[in-house]
Amino acid sequence: MGANLHIPIETECTALVIRVNQQCDFSTVYIGKRLANPKDYELIPSFEAKQFNGDYTGLYSSAYTPNGTRNLLEPALQVIHADQNPSLDLKYVSHQQKSLDQSNEVILTKIYLKDPVYPFEVILHYRAYYKENIIEQWSSIQHNETDSVRLQKYSSANLYFSTFHQYYLTHFHGAWAREMIPEEIQLTAGIKVLDTKLGTRADLFQAPSFLLSFNQPINYENEDSGEVFAGTLAWTGNYKIEFEIDSMRNLRLIAGINPYASEYFLIPNKEFVTPSFLFTYSSQGLSTISHRWHQWARKYRVPDGQGNRLTLLNNWESTYFDFDEAKLTSLIQDARQLGVDLFLLDDGWFGNKYPRDNDSAGLGDWQVNRRKLPNGIGYLISQAQANNIQFGIWIEPEMVNPRSELYENHPDWVIKLPNRSEYYFRNQLVLDMSNPQVQEFVFDIVDRLFTDHPQLAYIKWDCNAVIYNAYSPTNLHQSHLYVDYVRGLYDILDRLRKKYPSVPIMLCSGGGGRVDYGILQYFTEFWPSDNTDGLERVFIQWNYSFFFPTITLCNHVTNWGKQSLKFRTDVAMMGKLGYDLVVSKLNENELKFSQQVLHDYARLKSIIWHGRLFRLVSPYRLNRDIASLIYVNAEQDQAVWFTYLVGNRYLAGSNGVIRLKGLNPLTMYKIQEINIYPGTDQSTIVSVQSISGDYLMTYGFDPVVDVQRASVVLQLTNVMN
Ligand code: DGJ
């Protein structure tokens, strides 16, 4: 080959550029703002393979680092060939770029690589979403050797950042009811790893989504400036993301399935396809980053992302397992009185030999409990219909209680070590989703619910266990279990979505233990946390909002926390609103308030779900004690603005103006306070007849938040509307 070849993978504002040199080595020379003239990418200097103070191998910036030959750093792909040779070399062969849609807005680039010695090939895939500025990267691995090749590490992406001097990583850790706690660190020489080994989910302890800021920490006070990169791995199981500052002080990023206990035996001529790593880069700060994820997810990833969602009343926190037909019938009437779209029956409706009366028995036995519900689910659906609302149901199909008929009848369907004692997570074990018989069983649970009850309008799919004692009684290769579990789960969900494309399904996992863009291709919404304390939720939802669109967040008003009903409701309204409390225990004002909110929400939900979110004041900001966010519709003629008191220092409150964002400077807006609690002192309510977007965004406006007004929601409307 002659001079260097450049393969730019571009979106409207960003570029990732791969250079292929004369030796057919391929490296990442640029990630950042797209250059006006693609020819200019050729000017970017290369890292020569030189010893002492340089790139010793010529591989530091490889776009997919192979193992065992001259590489000295962390590989992206590590294999042992059929002849036991533990080395890999990859050379560029060719590439292709083609549009995947009529309007050229989604472009797929494929780069074909080959080992010069072995019949072993890799294809790097890059799907660029032009308008949303998101790049989705994955690889596929194949060979034609005499026997299986052992894949010891098989990453989705390997990126290289060489134009910056300092790298700041914000990652999100947590635990049950404490999801998405951000922590920002400066990356130092060596490797920082984000990973999980939980098996059934990616996050809980550490989310697979992160932010990187270049040369300076992220500017959370001003989200419109700074160079920021955001990445997320679309995989619902063990993952590993490595950030390596190499000896040249550049950043190598490798993301993919966690190789932990997961050596994969790849048979000849079978393709191994990795999950996608998704990323975006912005030179205009964090706000742009979120807009891109939100737009992309609604348009391309989440089912019915641009459509509607149902408000609901859930019975979990009002009954737990203790209910019968009469109690549920009365809750269904409450749901109608409240004004929601749907009643959701939670855990506890199944199991006969081992009734599901608490969380230690019955899970896995998906037959209606005859004592609690003698007339079955059909009766409850008819009650919902009589009350003019829809009906949904809870399941947790991937898991089993040892005290269940399922466990008695199919011990070989359960993940557990044959010679060690069982260890439980919430008294349950995990079914072996790598077993096709189990896949069929799980598919059937959902399919049967829908075929028996075609009017069923909603599913809540829970997942309350992690994998302990990882061992499959049937899988030929134990080291395939973690990968095959997730693949088995995706296969079922894929079949279900083909058969039931539009039914709303909530992704639940006792909280945010399972939120990633792999599984979100099958779910319309997710449960961010069991923690529904209003104050906590301001923070939790704030952090999810960096990556996930508002329409996907299920926020229920419950009795958690000390905040007023108004505060809890206002916070829940910043997402898909639901309720999980005893409606009959609400006093007159509380009920009136909630009914009015639901009425207004029906009018405003589309702005909140489909509009652009601007985070105005961070709850983490020192000495401000408030959080403020605004949702603006595409036409910029309507907005909903939420502000909360999040501290209780002396005189804490808004104490002055907040500058708004996203409005049309030329538009005159009317400002009206909504979600006003009955009996509130009318003199403090904010209302303005006409004020320009320019004024609101340049000077600002005080929503008057203080200890008496701890939560304020303002609606902005173009006066001409
Ligand atoms: C955990 C979920 O987060 C709750 O909402 C509820 O559905 C329970 N599981 C039921 O067991």
From TrEMBL:
Its EC number is 3.2.1.22. It comes from the Eukaryota. It is an enzyme of class 3 (hydrolase). It comes from Adineta ricciae (Rotifer). The active site is at residues 462, 530. Residues 627-703 form the Glycosyl hydrolase family 36 C-terminal domain. It catalyses: Hydrolysis of terminal, non-reducing alpha-D-galactose residues in alpha-D-galactosides, including galactose oligosaccharides, galactomannans and galactolipids. GO terms for molecular function: alpha-galactosidase activity. Substrate binds at residues 176, 346-347, 426, 460-464, 508, 530. Pfam families: Glyco_hydro_36C, Glyco_hydro_36N, Melibiase. Residues 28-264 form the Glycosyl hydrolase family 36 N-terminal domain. Gene3D superfamilies: Aldolase class I, alpha-galactosidase from lactobacil brevis, Golgi alpha-mannosidase II. One of its GO terms (biological process) is carbohydrate catabolic process. This is alpha-galactosidase. The keyword Hydrolase applies. Keywords: Glycosidase, Hydrolase.
